[in-house]
Amino acid sequence: MKRPLALSLAVLLLLSGCSSTEESTTIFAMDTVMTLTAYGSHAREGLSAAEAEINRLEKTLSVTREDSEVWAIDHSAGAPVTVGTDTAALLNAAAALGDRTGGALDVTLYPVVKAWGFTTGDYRIPDAEELADLLTRVDDHAVHMDGDTVTLPAGMELDFGALAKGYAGEQCASLLKEAGVTSAILNLGGNVQTVGAKPDGSPWRVAVQDPEGESEDYVGWLELTDEAAVTSGGYQRYFEENGVRYWHIIDPDTGAPARSGLLSATIVGKSGTACDGLSTGLFVLGPEKALDCWRQSDDFEAVLIGEDHTVQITAGLADRFTLREDSGYTLRIVEE
Length: 336
Ligand code: ADP
Ligand code: MG
Fold this sequence. Notes:
This protein is α+β, with helices and mostly antiparallel strands. It has helices spanning 43-61, 69-74, 85-100, 110-115, 128-135, 164-178, 272-285, 287-295; strands at 11-14, 22-29, 32-39, 81-82, 144-146, 149-151, 184-188, 191-195, 204-209, 218-224, 228-233, 238-241, 244-247, 262-269, 300-306, 310-314, 321-323, 330-334. Strands 2-3-7-8-11-14-15-16-18 form a nine-stranded mixed β-sheet, with helices on one face. The protein has a four-stranded antiparallel β-sheet with strand order 1-9-10-17, with no helix packed on it. Strands 4-6-5 form a three-stranded antiparallel β-sheet. Helix 1 runs antiparallel to helix 6, helix 3 (85-100) runs parallel beside helix 7 (272-285) and helix 6 runs antiparallel to helix 7. Bound molecules: adenosine-5'-diphosphate (ADP) and magnesium ion. Magnesium ion (MG) binds at residues 162-163, 230, 232, 276-277, 279-280.
């Protein structure tokens, strides 16, 4: 039995009444619904710039648009391709985050993601031989960058699906600030990017979804100021066959959906790109290795929800995460 694409927002916004002028826009881009909300007299102008930026990035980074830079790389048959600053920035970020996660984030997994049907919704379970063969074409260290020139070996394909929305959120936050906006919250399909605090000066409150609940159920909420929060979870996009659930986050070691003991990983930090890449990578790594990565880092905090119904939060969130009463989950604060 094949089920249709199940998509839900990973993070719900809890917006309480704000008195400052509020402007909001909802767009569909990067395969998801995005809601951008900004406050104050520069809100409209800031949102126009943000919306234009998202559309521009989609054109540049889309793996399916024949005029995108990613398409050019994926169809280069090993020839060098000249790229713009966004593609170059994402390739550099992906390489660094790939290394930080021990290869758990790998943007060259695209042939494997395609084989499972996650790109089209035409789901299937590739057999072990097919996966082993596809994995010979996966290795982000084989991507060669020289200035603004990228070379990808023939037969390989890359895709920024695991970090493009975080990058877009980060870029939009900069543009909003340039336009004079000091308070905004952007929800890019579960990738939340905040600008400043709420108009009344208090932190934004962003709910963390219950991975086993309905899309409106949440396990608790985070308080954020001028930072991003990004969730990756097995519940966001999946299909079921013979009672087994197969989701869209793949372990590069096996080529199969990552089963690491985590139901979701939410990453909080200043860089939306890093948060997005790490949310995918740490979901693949599982709780212990994810916390090892956190201990070696100083640019993010995490909320890791386990199959054992524990919610582990890293020390930096101790005063900024509240578990919902009756959530059914147990909270554990992880110290350094
Ligand atoms: P979403 O895009 O649903 O918010 P993620 O940021 O976790 O979630 O990105 C998942 C997407 O990234 C998948 O749909 C797939 O295209 C791609 N992907 C899956 N597994 C990996 C991985 N281990 N490394 C890099 N990209 C991946
Ligand atoms: Mg991600």
